[in-house]
Each structure stands twice: as C-alpha cells, then as structure tokens.
C-alpha cells in the first residue's frame, strides 16, 4: 500500500468524556505538560543538591570531573540530539499523515536511545573497574576522596534516573511506532506521537543540563 492510500483504519471517535477529538488531544497534551512540570521539580531538586555540593567542595568536584569519560559523554550527547531530531521529524510526518515515514523515524529514535544506553553501560563498566562506585567498590584516596565520592554518588543518581527515563521512553516510542505502522494515525489524529515527542524532548533537555555539569567540571582550568 502506498503512502497515498495510507489509512487502513478510520479516524477514531473521542472517548466518552470528551466532546471532540480536538478536546481529547488538548487534554492529552495538557496532561503531559503537567507531568513534565513535576519532572522538572524532581530533577531540579537533585540538580540543586549537586550545585550545593559543587559549591561546597570545588576542588574535589574538579578532581572527580577529570575522571569522567568525556569522549563517551560527548558521543552520547550527539546521539541524543540526533534522536531529538528524528523524533521531531516523526511528529511532522505524522502531522501530514505519512504512516511509514512516521514508523521508520520512530524506530530510528528508539535505536538511537538504545545506543545511548549501551554506551552508558560501557561507561558504567569502566567506572566499576576503576573503583569509582560509591558504597560498592570506591577506593579513591587523597585529601579530596570524600568529595570525589560525593560527586560520583550524585553522578550515578542523576544519570541512573535519567537512564530510567530513557528506558521508559524507548517503550513509549516502540508502542507508538507499532501503532503508526498499523495506520492508527492520520492528519486529523496523531496526538500519541506528539505527546511521546514531548516526553522525549524533555529527556534530551535533561541530558543537555547533565552533560556540562558532569563532564566539563574540572576541565576548564589548569
């Protein structure tokens, strides 16, 4: 079936609590924005804790930052930015009723997200072998050892929770991709793609904040 004849399913009717599909779409978008606002508060609290700790132990955090794997972190930043582009492209394709391009672009986004997690796994393994995991095998010595350990505690907390969000995003994208391939969306109904895109862009934005805080600290000075 060509893209010119791409709608095997009829446009859906709104749920009983909504008068129109437009109202249902607005409610879904509003609900996602409210959820993202709570996530901003959640990550904001952790970032505030990081800012306090970094201000209290600048030398230790600078030393710890130089242990981070900046190459992997930089590659992962490019990977997530690329996934944000493919997601935005998928939303645009869905808006124009292009079923197969929407599905393929969502698949590309999910694969890039999996690559991000794989690279993060490699990074975690290296940090494990270097004994940088607080509470399990941390063996850093020196006058700044406690500050370095605090840095890595916050590092694993922030990147670990972000990784959970990436994993959830992969699941959402995969479900949306299957629905797109089956023709569930059209020019008049593509809200699930749009809402999934909002979530994924939030995940990318969080990483944009984490990257300089984690990988660039301690590398700008002597």
From TrEMBL:
Cellular compartment(s): Cell membrane; Membrane
Topology in the lipid bilayer: Multi-pass membrane protein
Highest taxon of the lineage? Bacteria
Homology family: Belongs to the cytochrome c oxidase subunit 3 family.
Q: Where are the transmembrane segments?
A: 30-50, 70-91, 103-122, 152-178, 198-218
A Pfam family assignment: COX3
Q: What is this protein called?
A: Cytochrome c oxidase subunit 3
From which source organism is this entry? Answer: Azospirillum picis
Q: Which PANTHER family match?
A: CYTOCHROME C OXIDASE SUBUNIT III, NITRIC OXIDE REDUCTASE SUBUNIT E
């Amino acid at each position: 079936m060509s893209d010119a004849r791409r709608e095997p399913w009829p446009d859906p009717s709104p749920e009983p609590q909504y008068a129109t599909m437009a109202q249902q779409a607005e409610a879904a978008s509003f609900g996602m924005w409210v959820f993202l606002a709570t996530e901003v508060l959640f990550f904001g609290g952790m970032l505030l804790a990081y800012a306090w700790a970094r201000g209290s132990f600048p030398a230790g955090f600078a030393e710890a930052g130089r242990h981070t794997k900046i190459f992997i972190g930089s590659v992962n930043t490019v990977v997530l930015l690329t996934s944000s582009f493919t997601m935005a492209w998928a939303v645009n394709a869905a808006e124009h009723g292009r079923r197969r391009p929407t599905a393929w672009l969502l698949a590309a986004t999910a694969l890039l997200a999996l690559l991000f997690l794989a690279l993060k796994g490699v990074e975690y393994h290296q940090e494990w072998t270097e004994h940088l995991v607080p509470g399990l095998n941390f063996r850093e010595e020196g006058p700044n050892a406690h500050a370095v350990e605090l840095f890595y505690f916050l590092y694993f907390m922030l990147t670990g929770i972000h990784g959970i969000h990436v994993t959830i995003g992969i699941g959402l994208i995969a479900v949306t991709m299957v629905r797109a391939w089956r023709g569930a969306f059209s020019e008049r109904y593509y809200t699930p793609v749009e809402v999934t895109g909002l979530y994924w862009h939030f995940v990318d934005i969080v990483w944009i904040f984490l990257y300089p805080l984690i990988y660039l600290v301690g590398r700008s000075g002597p």
